[in-house]
Amino acid sequence: MTTTAQRASARAAARPDGTPAHATLILAIICVSYFMVILDNSIVFTGLPQIRSDMGFSEISLSWITNAYVLVFGGLLLLGARAGDLFGHRRVFVFSLVVFSLTSLLVGAAQAQWWLIGARALQGVGAAVLAPSALSLLTRSFAEGRARDRAMAAYSAVAGLGAAFGLVLGGLVADVISWRAGFFLNVPVGVVMVVLALRFLPETERRQGRFDIAGAVLATLGSTALVLGIVDAADFGWTAVLTLVPLVAGVVMLVLFVRVERGAAQPIVPLRLFAGRERSGAYLARMLYMGAMMGFFFFTAQFVQSVYHWTPLQAGLAFLPMTLVNFVLAVQVPRLLERAARPLVLLTGVVLTTLGMAWLSRLDLHTPYLTGVALPMVLIGAGQGLTLAPLTSSGVDGVAPADAGAGSGLVNTVHQIGSALSLSILTAVAASVSTGHAAADVTARSGTALTGSAVLLALAVATVLALIVPARATHHERSL
């Protein structure tokens, strides 16, 4: 008698071109589910002024609504990836969908600051399991080559579009209903995805092993302590005890994390993943790139509402130039990769994003939307559309099947940890700017933070040139 997993695997048997049966449906389930995760990373941005007014958040504490989610998300991603390897990626994927949907309900129902931040942290737990399971199912369902390039382009387009669409959807529901409505939407969508996943996604084999609890705890607490120290610096200064203690503790725990991983029989981060120059470059470039983009969304959404006095919906629609260009170019990436080398496409994308961010950072109280915000967004959207797919591919290519979960988890981990660390740094730096006038403060702080984002992107360009381009050239020479 065949099992459900065996029947699912049979349905997903690959065709000669490397695509599985029901390829479109499998890709849609994975992408929609991942879209929920990315969406909730950005859906709060256009609702931040409303949340701050409703619950009495300060400007500094407001960043914890985002950081609570991305820190737990990033810190537990590696453990979530390991869970997929041990229990089967489809089984874990379905479980994470249930957790994510229920905690979204808790976020929407929050009645106090502690409740909202706590629920966002719990939501991060579900996301930490869902994201690596989705990427692992994608890499296992689509063979390396053209089939996977196309699937990866769709997956990466979701990452870019989810962030941008979250702003529009968040603004719409905050304007028409409440900022809470966007989170309630996750519940019915999650139910539908669970049903479809059980029916169509292939199950992967379960591996013998154990959880590296010590590694997961050190990674999560270490990164959280660093962010806490950086956020405290905005209130108490960089030399204050309340700043130095968490910063030192964070560094110590991350050093211990590396030592634990070296000696662990089954580490959540096999250090051999960093042996490849291209993969290491992709991890570092992703941290820098996504950190810059998180600052862009966080501060630009507040700027257009505070300076232009736009509604949350108008603020969300303000990001449409970026969203549309992002989508158009992201779907063209597979064709571009057939004509041009991956590093060239990646480098072009990061450079365009850097130019757009530098332009946007020049905003002031009298900056017109069209030439000072919309046009820079076109460059940023074009850059992101070209960047994410090749950057993701560089981060997972060449990973052994036994490390598929860890490799996928690490890509998502550097994405989230980079976002949290960079947002805390940019928020701390921006908070040091004060003019004594509300709108002028928002403008000056946004310009400072966006300048910081441009610096992060310039460092990402340097990383691509120093690590990814030469490593890919060497790989190409060996394959000839």
Keywords:
mainly alpha; 480 residues; 19 helices; 0% strand
Proportion of residues in helical segments: over 70%
Strand % is under 5%
Mean pLDDT: 80
CA-CA gap between termini:
47 Å
Helix-strand makeup class: mainly alpha
Number of helices: 19
Q: Globular, elongated, flat, extended or rod-shaped: what is the shape?
A: globular
Q: Give me the strand/helix succession.
A: HHHHHHHHHHHHHHHHHHH
| Structural Rg | 21 Å
Number of strands: 0
| Low-confidence runs of at least 5 consecutive residues | 1-14
**Biggest sheet: strands, sense, closure?**
none
Main location: membrane
InterPro entries: MFS, MFS_dom, MFS_trans_sf
Organism: Streptomyces siamensis
Domain Major facilitator superfamily (MFS) profile: 26-478
